[in-house]
Give the backbone structure.
Amino acid sequence: MALADLLQAIEADAAAERARADREAAAEATAIVEQTRAQAAELAAELAAEPEGEARAEAERMRALARMDASAAVRSAREEAFASLLAGIRAELAALRGEASYPGLFRSLLAESVVALPEAHELRVDPRDRDLAMELAGDLRVDPALDAWGGLELACRDGRTIRNTLGERLANAEPLLRRRFAQRLARPVNAGVR
């Protein structure tokens, strides 16, 4: 799966997660507001005998608490949606090794890493990538000791390493994904998906 396809899939997943998160957050916020209204009505009945100023202050306090509860529920729903999105991405990345495009991706990751660390002498790979690595390693010594969904690690004799695994790339992309996900959630639901 090409990176552009993966990003499109991520954006589609983000849109679906955003819509789900919005529905859940709206439902939860509505339930909280309704509960708070009921509590406010009870309180209003109790406070009927109290001076009007105190009753208004108490009602405002109750509304403020309801707004805080609703905001917390929305934040929680959004964080759950993002965690679900990341879990989906992780599952897709973990399955890439079985795709026909994986050898080309591995070759690209290796070429990119060699350019960044031309003095490398060792190529560390997951044991499942050993045969592929042996074909592409050239003068590099292959060590099948890496535990990764895919990708590799290059090492120099002086201790420098380049870790270019799918998991590492996802970890590096997570802040950008989080920002894009938040931007998607901030759009109105009727704005549509590009």
User: Anything to note?
Assistant: The chain has a mean pLDDT of 85. Residues 100-168 form a domain with the hypothetical protein PF0899 fold fold (CATH 3.30.2320.30). Strands lie at 122-125, 141-143, 151-155, 161-165.
